[in-house]
Amino acid sequence: MIVVTGAAGFSGQSVIRALKRAGRPVRALVKNAAQAAALQGLGADHVLPGDMRDPAVVRAALAGAQALYFICPRFAEDEPAIGALWIRAAEDARLPRFVYHGVAHPYIADMPHHWDKLAVQLALERSSLPFTVLQPTNYMRNVTWAWNRLVEGGIYRLPYSADAPLTWVDADDVAEAAARVLTEPGHDCGIYELCGTDGAITRRQLCALLSERLGKTIRAEEAGWEDWQHLPRYRGWTPGQMARLKAMFDYYGRHGFRAGNTRVLAMLLGRAQTGYAQYLDGLMRLPAHARQAVL
Ligand SMILES: NC(=O)c1ccc[n+]([C@@H]2O[C@H](COP(=O)([O-])OP(=O)(O)OC[C@H]3O[C@@H](n4cnc5c(N)ncnc54)[C@H](OP(=O)(O)O)[C@@H]3O)[C@@H](O)[C@H]2O)c1
Between vectors from CA 286 to CA 71 and to CA 176, what angle results, nearest 5°? Predict the structure, then answer.
């Protein structure tokens, strides 16, 4: 049995699909019953609703497990504490394999959510557990959050410079790599930075790719944080989560985020990974209703 946490989230669902394609039994930990219902159809063999901060839930999730794919909630202020709880429980359960869904360049202290993931990574390194860390860079999929607005308005706006170079990765490639690392031998102590085939590209360059595909000019603009922080998407976020989000955008604006070498993910997959143009082509090929479902 392979346990996946954060299973109802974007990364978690993708990992479950990849594990089921590989024919592996999956126990999915979701936050509540509503998420459990939403997960029906993905093929998880066991869906466990519960709070991943609750020690009893953690013990139940790990009972009899062969491996864990550990995904923490986005920008969680207490990720180091959640990580410590799961690492202790995994040691008690003598878990054979602990794979952590981290982030590329976790040592960048200017981005506290990266620093939080570094704390979990260090705790793993100091534990008695066989561990592997996957460190994805930004998901290409993040473009879908702005899709309807950029298609209608012709502007791709984010609160950092349009000329900041960033690396990107297809989250489905990350999930396939996760399934391999969870099920193949030879990945103990591996810490893998994962990015697509493009190297770093700016939002202005991305807009050129979008313009070609949409048949209209898409312009890159920089939004102000004052307006950005009030988007409905962030309703219910804590001040700590918002501070982490802002620190990330500020860092991107100052330095970009050129993280990951293109060879690593190809090595794990045994094939070339997805580039941004290819990802967009896949998105465009989806029937309209299916594309709306991923937006
Ligand atoms: N997006 C990127 O570009 C990117 C790149 C690299 C790494 N990452 C990392 O990937 C991780 C997952 O990201 P994601 O986009 O897949 O996040 P996500 O879609 O928000 O998934 C996280 C899931 O965990 C659930 N959850 C929250 N608190 C929980 C709790 N206490 N107990 C059980 N479940 C809980 C969430 O439920 P609710 O939605 O109800 O809160 C959600 O279903 C994050 O740690 C992120 O930092 C993301």
Answer: 30
Pocket test for ligand 1, best of 11, 116, 144, 265 (most atoms within 8 A of CB): 11
Show Cβ contacts of residue 125 under 8 Å, excluding neighbours closer than 6 positions: 131
For residue 215, how far is its CA from the centre of ligand 1 (angstroms)?
34
Question: Considering the entire predicted model, what is its pTM?
Answer: 0.97
Whether the pLDDT of residue 286 is over 90: the answer is no
State in words which class domain 2-137+170-195+260-274 has. Answer: alpha beta
CB of 13 sitting under 6 A from ligand 1: no
Q: Can you give the residue ranges of every domain in the chain?
A: 2-137+170-195+260-274
For the chain, the C-alpha Rg in angstroms (whole number) is 19
Residue for token digits 């592996």?
A: 24
pLDDT 10s digits, 30-74: 999 999 998 888 999 999 999 999 999 999 999 999 999 999 999
The pLDDT, as a whole number, for residue 290 is 74
- Ligand 1: does its nearest atom lie under 6 Å from the Cβ of 20? no
| CB distance 252 to ligand 1 below 6 Å | no
Give residue 287's pLDDT. Answer: 81
